Each structure stands twice: as C-alpha cells, then as structure tokens.
Amino acid sequence: MILRTAVRFILPLTFLYAAYAALKGHNGPGGGFIAGLIASVGLCTYRMSYGDRAFHRLLPIHPRWLVFVGLGLAAGVAALPLLFGQPLLRSASTTLHLGGADVHLVSATAFDLGVLLVVVGVAVGMISRLGEELDR
Amino acid sequence: MVTAAPYLILAAVGAPALSGLATMLLGGSQRLPRLTLAAAGPVASVALLAIHLGRHGVSPADTPTGTIPWVPSLQLDISFLVDGLGAFFALLIAGMGVVVVLYARAYFGPDDASLARFFPTLGFFTSAMLGVVLADHLLLTVLFWELTAISSFLLIGWDRDDADAGKRAMQAFFTTGLGGLALLGGILLFGSHTGIWRWSRLIAEATTISHDGTVVAAFVLMFVGAATKSAQWPLHDWLPGAMKAPTPVSAYLHSATMVKAGVFLLGRMLPAFGALALWLPLLVSIGAVTMLLGAVLALGQSDLKRIFAYTTVSHLGLLVAMYGMGGASTAEGLMAIDWDLTQIASHALYKAPLFLVVGALAHLVGARRLPELFGLWHRPGTDTKVVAVVLLLSGYALAGGPGTVSFVAKELFFAATTHAAGLHPLLAVVGVMAMAAAACNVAIFVRLATTVLGSSAGVRDGSAVPEPDAHGVDRWAFMLWAPAAALIALQYLGGLVPSLWNRTFRGIEVNVNDGAFADGLPWAWEPFLHPGMPLLMSMVAIGVGAVLGFSGWMRRDLVDVHTRIWPASYRGILQGGHRLFHSVQTGHVRHYLAVVFGVLTLCIGWAAWADPAMLRPPAGMAPLEYPAGLLLGAVVCATAIALPMVTERVVRVLVLGASGFAVVGLYLVYQAPDLALTQLMFEIISVILFLLVLRLLPRPDRRPRIRVLPRLALASVVGITIGWMTLIAGHAADSRADDTPTLGAFFEAHSLQGSELTDGRGGEGRNVVNVILVDFRGFDTLGEITVLATAALGVWSMLPGRRRHREEEDVRVPTGQGTQR
Q1: What is the spatial distance between Cα B567 and Cα B288, in angstroms, rounded to a whole number?
Q2: A interface mutation test: which of B682, B687, B688 has the most A CBs within 10 A?
Q3: A71, B235, B249, B504 — which has fewest CB within 10 A?
Q4: How distant is the Cα of A6 from the closest Cα of chain B, in angstroms?
Q5: ipTM topping 0.90
Q6: What pTM does this model have?
Q7: Segment B379-407, tens digit of pLDDT
C-alpha cells in the first residue's frame, strides 16, 4: 500500500527527471540512455506495484512501437543531413531567444530522444513480457 | 573520355543473357520464336564483336579497350580488354553458343518445357563466359568467373529427377567454386600488394613486377583457380562427372567454354607471370600428368561421353603444359609456345562435333556405349549414316591425323617439347608423355572406327541394342548433325587449305616466335617434306596407337581412382563440420564465456609480452588518494568472492547487485556522475530482469562441483589482467610523451567547440560523455540502439505472446510455481 501510494507520486517525478536528464544531457550529467533507463525503472516499479492491467492502461500501446518510433527518429535525424548534402549524422544547432532566456537547441537532442524511446521500449518490453510469463 | 566502345562490348557480353531471359516471356508452344530469340543473343554478340573489331581492330594486350565507371570509390569499373586472346575466346564462345542453341532445338525435340528452361540458363552461361574472357578489371574477371560456376551448376544438374546429376553438379560447383575462391584470394593479394587491378596494366608492367613472396603466393592461388576450372589433376574428376549434363551442355562446356576458362586465364597470366621461376615447373608438371592420365583413362572407358570427357581432360593438360613451357620463352628469350590459339581452336573444332554426334546417336539409335554401336555404319537410316561419317571424321581429328588442323597443332606441340627439351633435359619427359597421350588418342580412334564399321577388331559384347532416346525426333532432326558437320568441316578446311586458316588467325595470334611459323601454319604435308623430330614423334604415336587400338589391351572399363576422392572428402567435410560444430557450440554459457575471456586475456597477455613496459606500474599512481574508493573496491572484491559460494539463485542476484552498486559508488567517488547514474539505473533494471528470468527457469539440478580449480584460475587470471589493463589504460592517457592529444583530451577539448582538427566543428555540449555518444560517435550509438531493438524483437518473437498462450492453456498442466516447461 505504501509502495503503491509512493509510486503514484514517484512516477510523474521520474518522468520529469527523465525528461530533464534527456534535455539537459548535452551540457550536464544525463542523456538519452540514462533518461531512458530512469523512465524504465519508474515504469517497472509502477507495473510491479499495480499489476499488468493498470500498466496497460498507463501505456496502452505495445512497447515495440516505442522501439520503432525511437529507432525511426534516430535514423531520421542521422539521415537528415544527407538531404542538405552534409555527411551522415552531422549535427546542427541553433539558439532560440525566448524572452530573456537563450535556449540552445541541438539536433543531437532529437537523436538522443530516439535513443531514449528505444531504451524505454526495450527495457519495459522485456520486463513486462517476462512479468506476463510469471503472472500466468 | 567517353567512347562507344565499352558500351558496345558490354552489349555483346549481355546480349545472350538478355535474349535468354526474353525467351521466358514467351509462353506455350512458340518453338520457332523461342529458338529465334535464343539464337539472336549469341548472334548479336558475334555481330557486335565483329563491328568492334572492324572499327578498332585487335587491341594490344597492354591497352584497355574501354572503361565504364561503376564503383569509383573502390576503383572498380566495368572495363574491357579486346586483345587477341579475348577476341578469339569471345568469338569462339559466342559462335559455339549459336551452334548449341540450334542443336538444343533438335536435341530436346518438341519438348517445350525443357527448351523454355534451357535457353535462359544457356544465355546466362554464355554471357558469364563472355564476361570472363573480355573483362579487363581483375575483380570483374572473378565476378564473371563465379557466374560461370553458378550457371554451369544449373546446367550440369539439369535433370531434376536424377539424384546423381545433382551430386555431380554439386561436385563441379564445389571444385570450381573453391578454385574461384583461390582465384579471388590470389587477385586480392596481388592487387593490394602491387596496386595493379587490371590485366592490361599487369601486362604492360610485367617486367617491373618484383618476384617477391607475396606475388608468388598470389600466382599460386590464381593457378589453383585456373587448374580447378580446367580440371587439372588431381581435381579433374568433376569434369567426367559433369557428363550427367544434357549433351548440348557437354558439347558447350567442353569445347569452348567453362573448362577452357582456366586455360584462358593462364594465357592471360603468361605475359605477366611467365617469368616467375615457379611458372614452368608448376604448369608443366601438373599439365603433363593431367595430359597422360586423361588419355590413359579415356582409353579405358566404353561410354562415348566419358571417353570424350577424359580426352578433354587430357587436352586441357596439354594446353596447360603448353602455356607452362611458354614461360621458358620469356625467361630465355626463346620460343616455346607458338600458335596457342590454334591449339585451342583445333580442340574445340573436333570436341564439339564429337559431343554433338554422341547426342545425335542417343536419339537415333539410343546407344552411347561402344559395344552398342558395333556395326553402326550398316544400320538403316540416312541420318544414321551421316552421323557415322561425322563421328569418324571427328575421331580422325581427335587422333590428329594428317589433313586436319589438329595434326598441325599436335606437330606444334611436339616441336615445343623438343625445343623445351633443348632448354632442360628433364623436359624431354614431357615429350615422351605427349607421345603416349597422342598414342592413346590414336588408339581411341582406331577402336571407334573398327567398331562403327563393324570390323572384326571392333568392340562388341553380347549386350542388346537399347531403344532410341525418349526425346522426340521431328523435322528438325537434321540439326542433330548439321552443326557438327559444319564444325568438323572447318578442321579439314584449315588443315588442307592453311592459307584460309592463317588469314583468320594470323591477326590475333600473339605468340608467334619461331620464324618457320611466322608466315602461318604450314600445309598439311609440309612436315612430311621436311621431316624432323616432331614428325618422328607423330609417327611413333600413330604406330603405337594403332597397335594399342587393334589389340584388345585395356578394352575393359578402367576405374578412375580419383572418383573416390570426392565422395570421401565430401563426407569427411560434413562429418568434421558436424563434430567441430558440436565441440564449439556446447550450449553452455560458461563455456562461451570462458572462451571469450580466455582469448581476451591471451591477447592482452601477448601484447604485454611484446611490450613489457605495460607491466610496469605507472608512475605517480596514488592508491590511497581516496580511502572511500578503496573501501568500495574491497566491497566489490568481497561480493565477487562470495558469489560462487552462494547456492540460492535469488541471493546470488542480490550479491551481484551489491557488487554493481559498489561500482556505482566507485564512479561517484571518482567524480563520474554520468557513469554512476547509468550504472545505477542499469543495476536496478538488471536485478529486476534477473529476478524475473530466474523465477521462470526450472529448478537447477545439483551438478557436481568439479573442476572448480581451473575455473577459479581462469577467473583470477582474467580478473587480474583486465583490472591491470584498465589501470594502465586510464593512466596511459595522461602520460603520453609526445604532443598528440589522447582521445580523452581530444574529446574534452572538442565537446563544446571545434578547432582545425575537426573542421571547426564541436559537439556544442558540455557533457563530454553525451557529446561523444550522440555526436562524435553517433553512428556507434545508432548501431547500438539498432542492436537493442533487434534483441528486443528477438525476445518478443521467441517468447510467444499472450494470445497464443491462452490457446495453449488447455494442454498445459499447471504445477506448483509457474509453469514447468
């Protein structure tokens, strides 16, 4: 019960932290891989405390779609420079001026998000698949 | 420079395959259109080559004819070389292609299914062969070479219902395929060593090529390729085996094409490698042994197809020996090879008719064995008589009787051996072997003639004459003998009127050194007017051969001992592979891990042995700098030691987890938050995964604790080696003497902003680890997540999904915990 209640609070925080780590990754500790792992841990904890059905409600699609989308995103970002006559994976960056704050945008971040999705998809997919096996 | 020439040749090469493919579009019983279309390909090849030759003439062997860029980054292009050798072979192949197409129509009769299947395969094969002989780029040669292996495999294994044909096709494919691999290896070795990738350049720079070990090794490999393709001893057995193919194929393979590819290759290599010290002894010994062996074995056969197959082996040996002796001409500046193309053409011009006639006999009288053909001449039927005449005329040419081109060719070869014997007395043996082989050929002709004419000396036994072949014979039946008659006519035309032959061949013959032959081939009676050693040898061969033929000696089937080599080695390879597989793939993870770590340790140990400086502890190492790190290290060690002592699996996983968390602590102590975070998350997930997987696994059976010591020793050695290397590696980055930046320093410097080293590009991020992951080594990361995704797909597909489980639920017996499998 305590775990369930705790997870209810922790999960959004985990996601928030994962998102933070993913976006922050370029300059501080973090990155897509770590963020993916963080999110996976959160999701797995949720699944273990609430069970398969609730988990399915939270993530209504098969994790393989996360893998596909992630891989597609990463490959797309990797291939995009080819369209502009640049070598594969050449990253581009811009700085947006939003009010007072400068937001530094790097195309590598999108690549990182692809990595994140793949990691989440793989980890969650495997664990929930094995969990199903146990539940039966 | 863009010229039309290479495109013209490319069209000539591709035409047979294209027309063959086009015949597949025709449906049903459109026999005439199918035949016309199939013949159009090789005819177009001949015409295009003739146009090319008319426009540009024969190129010198050191000048490429044309180049079409293909893969510029590999310097691989489609380039052609239409020199005398290439043009001769190309015309021979395309010309024979036309003949075989026409003959196939008669051979298969109105059998539409066979024709529909045959023409595309034949076209494919013709194109591949044309590619082999016209390619200038070495790799292009290999490419077409392999295509010939594939297409001949299809042709030899033509009869789908005959298991033996399949086996023979496999044998041919394996033997020539292995040779092809050797050829590829030799060419790659040579090309990468010298940077020469074209025949034309190779021939142009022949004198400057050093004869070092690599070149010799490359030459030997290429020779192996040529020797397997041309059925040289001891790998000749596939060729008589390939007799399982339908007769048009046999005629084609033997006369002009596949088996000559090896000889062609040697002809190509002669100007470049002929000066190698190994060239002459290697080629002459192998070639001479093959020549004699093939002739003797041919004499001991009774099936016509097999007889002619073995005489082909014999003649191929002769050709190889001829090119081998050609090596002496470059080394000594003397003649030892003359009119090599005539030698090849003469063989094609009697061997093709022989095979075509054998196929015709199978149709008309249903017999292929000598005893069954006894008294053929006296049997009724016009076609039979004509076929018998063509058979005898071709047999006469096989024996090298005066009046044929092959007589002159044989004289040429004898002249070459006498000349070679003058260079080195040992080569006189080759002359004797050549005489013996020629005598066998004569004996075969004598036996053939007496049998066909029904003379008392002929071969006969009590066997009944079988029924004619099942293939239908229709109004195209004359095509069974007409092509053969046309081809054999050329033999006599060339032999009796040499001026015609010379007009055709003098232009493309490169190897004409002897003054006596410089003006052309002599009139057939010339040797008799000016007798010499070659004529004497001929006469001896004819005399011995006549005696052999009329006597009953060696009239029973002689078994080729080499037929045993193939099945035995094939079985050996299969069994050996089976055993090897099961000794390597034990199915135990601990074995695989032991091998992987053992090899890693050996590699590192070898490196340390080569550079003992690696064993010295780096200067300035301060092990006591961080006491916390020391403590955590002790924890890691303690868990590692405790791990094998724990028997309960769940506890094991937890102990493993403890070890991992201690490593996380280590990362934190040494200020690597990124790694620590990653490791932490990974530890959590792996512990969860392990626990899940372990609960699914069946109870472990208590296996006896044997061989603990070796495993312990291996583990300790691996651990100490890897640990030490990690220490050294970390330190080596700091203590480089020269100014070149180490990888770590480089990435540190460039992760935010670039410099000249990176074309002014940086990763634009401050987190070095992440910048490396997504930017500098983004391709790696992309590959890694692809691997991850693939692994996940594997898990999802190997563990059947939820839905399928429900269906199987009924049959499964539930047990205490989970489901036992």
Answers
A1: 26
A2: B688
A3: B504
A4: 18
A5: no
A6: 0.69
A7: 777 778 888 888 899 999 888 888 888 88
